[in-house]
User: Which sequence fits this backbone?
């Protein structure tokens, strides 16, 4: 029996090695197949994300608002789930409709004002450039208005090169427009199907959770299945609370930013507040990502206004990081600032924007699992000696290493003498 088990283990090891080697050799084809599968399942991924986010207001309505339905009449108990489902989608799409109804006119107005002001900005930049050129000519005697350069530019604009550039632009514009239309249509289709999928997932989430747990228990050993369910619950706790808390935090920061910019009469207050609020969802780097284009926009209008905007954003982000964020998120993450920075950089480098958003809660889960494993191992070793003894042993070891290093340095100095 042991020999059979040994041969079976060797057989599975060889099979696994061959399979991994095949995948690595044909990595391009495997990536193409995975991309096609991901494209097919994209509506279900959108539906899962939407259902997961809406599960929080759904639980609130189901457990807090409609919990008394059916207590006196059992026939009405079946209304709790559809009522909670309808209210969740009404709240979600109601907020989106309200924001779009307010933001779109104001954003279009701000963008229109920006486009209309472009000639004035261009004239201001041209005036500054002319003043700089005059200053260079007066101080250094060097004229930047080069006649040869001017003639080359005019020849390019009127010659064959300009026609080739224009022809290439026209030839590439039509395929680019078709590509944009395809991407837009595909995204719209995925979101429509995703909304339908999210309704089914959210309405039957308890049944789906039971089926997933039953499948895990059926196909894995008891110890492994308990660990899988435990890790899944931990991921749900960390990721869910972090995402919802970060959305609420960014929404409040966007409102505070709009109020502050309106009070101090900054230009494009709503447009800048939307950019700051949306990018604030990204941990650590979000405020800087949102502030840079806004500061550049204000720099074109008024450098002094740009300076005071930077000061305002720094104060706002200090308020968010030290007061508002900890109040909303609490101990959801449970990791230090260094590990937050590490998780955002690594997640963004591997998976882009989604990695920056989910890098912090995912790393928090990994950090918690490693911390629990270390604690359990220390408890096992505490049966032999206590934690204090372990610390004393480590301190004695450090002292011994330090003494040996000092002795070696003294021996080297004696030899040199």
Assistant:
């Amino acid at each position: 029996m042991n020999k059979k088990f040994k041969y079976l283990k060797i057989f599975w090891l060889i099979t696994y090695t061959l399979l991994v080697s095949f995948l690595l050799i044909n990595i391009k084809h495997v990536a193409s197949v995975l991309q096609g599968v991901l494209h097919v399942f994209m509506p279900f991924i959108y539906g899962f994300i939407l259902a997961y986010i809406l599960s929080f207001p759904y639980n609130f309505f189901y457990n807090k608002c409609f919990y008394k339905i059916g207590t006196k009449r059992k026939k009405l108990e079946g209304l709790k789930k559809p009522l909670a489902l309808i209210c969740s989608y009404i709240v979600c799409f109601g907020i989106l409709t309200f924001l779009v109804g307010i933001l779109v006119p104001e954003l279009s107005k701000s963008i229109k004002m920006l486009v209309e002001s472009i000639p004035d900005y261009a004239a201001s930049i041209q005036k500054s450039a002319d003043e700089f050129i005059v200053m260079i000519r007066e101080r250094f005697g060097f004229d930047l208005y080069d006649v040869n350069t001017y003639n080359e530019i005019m020849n390019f604009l009127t010659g064959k090169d300009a026609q080739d550039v224009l022809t290439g632009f026209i030839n590439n514009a039509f395929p680019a427009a078709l590509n944009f239309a395809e991407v837009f249509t595909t995204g719209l289709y995925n979101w429509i199907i995703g909304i339908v999928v999210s309704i089914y997932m959210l309405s039957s989430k308890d049944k789906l959770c039971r089926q997933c747990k039953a499948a895990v228990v059926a196909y894995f050993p008891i110890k492994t299945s308990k660990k899988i369910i435990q890790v899944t619950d931990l991921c749900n706790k960390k990721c869910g609370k972090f995402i919802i808390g970060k959305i609420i935090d960014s929404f409040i920061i966007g409102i505070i930013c709009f109020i502050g910019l309106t009070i101090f009469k900054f230009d494009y207050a709503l447009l800048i507040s939307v950019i700051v609020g949306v990018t604030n969802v990204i941990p650590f780097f979000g405020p800087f990502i949102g502030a840079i284009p806004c500061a550049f926009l204000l720099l074109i209008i008024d450098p002094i206004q740009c300076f005071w905007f930077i000061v305002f954003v720094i104060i706002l982000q200090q308020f968010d990081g030290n007061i508002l964020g900890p109040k909303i998120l609490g101990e959801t993450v449970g990791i230090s600032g260094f590990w937050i920075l590490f998780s955002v950089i690594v997640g963004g480098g591997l998976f882009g924007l989604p990695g920056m958003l989910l890098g912090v809660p995912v790393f928090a889960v990994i950090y918690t699992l490693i911390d629990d494993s270390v604690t359990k191992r220390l408890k096992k070793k505490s049966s032999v000696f206590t934690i204090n003894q372990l610390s004393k042993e480590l301190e004695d070891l450090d002292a011994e290493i330090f003494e040996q290093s000092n002795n070696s340095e003294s021996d080297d100095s004696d030899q040199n003498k």
